[in-house]
Amino acid sequence: MGVDDDWLEAAGYGMTGIPELAKVCPDCLPDPHLSDWVVESGRAAKCDVCGRANKVAWFSDLFAEMQQRIAAELLPFSMSDEVPGAEWEIDPPTVGTAELLDDLGEPLGPVDSALSAAFCAAFEDNWIPVGAWAGTLEDWLNEGWDRFAETVKTTTRFVFAHTPRERWMRDVDIAPGEMLARIGEVIRTTDIVTPHGNGIELFRGRKHHPAETYSTPAELGPPPVSKAGNQRMSPPGISFFYAAADDETALAELRGVDGEYATTATWMVNRLCRVVDLDPARMPDMPSIFDLGRRHLRAPLAFLLRFAEEIAKPVRAGDDPAVDYVPTQVVAEYIRHIVRTSTNDPIDGIRYPSAARRGGANVVLFVGPEGVAGATPLLRMTSGPRRFEAVDTTTVWEPRSL
Q: Is pLDDT at 144 greater than 70 in this prediction?
């Protein structure tokens, strides 16, 4: 039998209703981690969901196990000590059980399935985040990044690492001087340093006047330091190799207007490069909250997804790249000089989402003109040049409320 009323109440799983006396087998559970739990903990019997003989668990036991795992991030109202009293006149952030199951990827199947409906009936209370008021690790990382970005843009740019913590900060708050180390920790924890090995192709373009022609690696590669301008990952005077994962993205990043010309070329990486990969399409999948071995990565990965969005923001009217690029320039410099792989190798570059083409990706490698010169360059131009003219470039304006 499953848990009885007295045991359920004493255990304090936050159920407001007693699940029906029914059993479920691992084959009926979409979430592999819950399925594995039934295999490990269940007993042989007939599944009441599919009718087949298998290892099974009582609904009540399964729901209790699920609540324990969900408790890493959310608790039922009846179990949380963060529900404000009526005198506070504050509505805390909450989520209903059906919405919770949807947010967690429908671990019991569609929300309107019998198993999901039974879970919703067992937990009629809303759920409140753990850390609803103090914040969560994801909150602290996001707030730390916002604080860091504002500091290096408007307050101090070169000695921020030595500025003291504000007196109002809690132990969990991340000061600007601590943020780079936390980003390095997140990079190592989530294992997003990927190899860009020998033979990988990259695409780079250069915009120019119609009367000009460029064809050599020196002309189509990184500029000399005397002509290196302000870029998303590098300040003036520091030359990096900026490229895209495909020709279309390379052209989109040039943002041509009618009549302008551009020349692109294909480049091949000639040795193994280690790249911090912030391309959302290539990041590790978000672990299930029921995955006890990897769920600690949920908050760092959520932060990285938001961080990637920040990096990919296009420059808008009124923005000043000399100021707005400073946070990412500082992060790139930290990654280049301080962050190391698990084998203590340096990082060679960053892959990040394109701000100009949805779904596109850019790569910056921390080399200047020397990276495309000499007998054994890091990058070799393998095809091109390809010449283009910008035509029919239009901006679509959509109405917005005042």
A: yes
One domain for residues 141 and 120:
no
pLDDT tens-digit series, residues 61-85: 999 999 999 999 998 887 877 666 5
Do 237 and 339 belong to one domain? Answer: yes
Burial class (CB in 10 A: 0-12, 13-18, 19+), 47: buried
377 shares its domain with 254:
yes
> Cα(171)–Cα(272) distance, rounded to whole angstroms?
40
Non-local (6+) Cβ contacts of 314 within 8 A are: 355, 356
Domain hosting residue 161, numbered range: 137-184
Whether residue 343 sits in one domain with residue 204: yes
Q: Judge if 122 and 267 occupy the same domain.
A: no
Q: How many angstroms separate the CA atoms of 306 and 138, rounded? A: 10
Across 81-176, the runs of DSSP E, i.e. the strands, are 127-129
pLDDT value at position 312? 85
This prediction's pTM: 0.86
The Cα–Cα gap between 397 and 372 comes to 41
Residue 395 inside a domain? The answer is no
Q: In total, how many domains does the chain have?
A: 3
Is 397 within the bounds of a domain? no
Flag whether 236 is in a domain.
yes
pLDDT, tens digit, 9 for 90 and up, residues 177-229: 999 999 999 999 999 999 887 789 999 999 998 999 999 999 999 999 999 99
Q: Is residue 189 part of a domain?
A: no
Distance of CA 87 to the CA centre of its chain: 38
Looking at 7-21, 180-194, 341-355, which range is the least confident one?
A: 7-21
Averaged over 366-392, what is the pLDDT? 90
Cα angle vertex 240, ends 238, 246, to 5°?
A: 155
